[in-house]
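Write out the 3D structure for:
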Amino acid sequence: MAEWPKRVTDLFVTKNRTKSGAYSVKICDTGIWKEIILDDKFPCKLKHGKLRPVFTRTENVNSLWVLLLEKAWAKMYGGYGSIEGGFMTECLHDLTGAPTKILGAHNSALWKELLLGEMRNWIMTAATSNALGDDKNVSKGGIHASHAYSVLSAHSINGEKLLRMRNPHGASEWNG
């Protein structure tokens, strides 16, 4: 969603950082937009001598929005433990209100859907199964097992299918 900043800012009722630490965001719950009120306190742990958020984290101090949206989503479902894992479509529906669908890698319509999504500016994601990779859960090409990726674009050029993806955690790059 960060590729379209307006889609993110539209979720925030509270538009600016507050001194009180209180924020309000909108999340779509089974088709109904609900306002979630929350504070700016996040679960943290000490890592490499610094206190870091336990769940979503960002290096950019101005990216509080990432932690706030995750906290609001966790609050809606009863806590962080309730939102760990699962399908990206669940979160995307709640943050956009739009319908979502899952297409498997062997679906004959997959590439056509990716090109359509590119043309229509859909938010698209990809995920790998837990069978991918070696004992470190990373394939020789750098793709992680049981991991989600942002699909940034899809193109057919001279008969080649090109898919541009981002690892949201940025821990490694594809090198295949």
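The radius of gyration is 18 Å.
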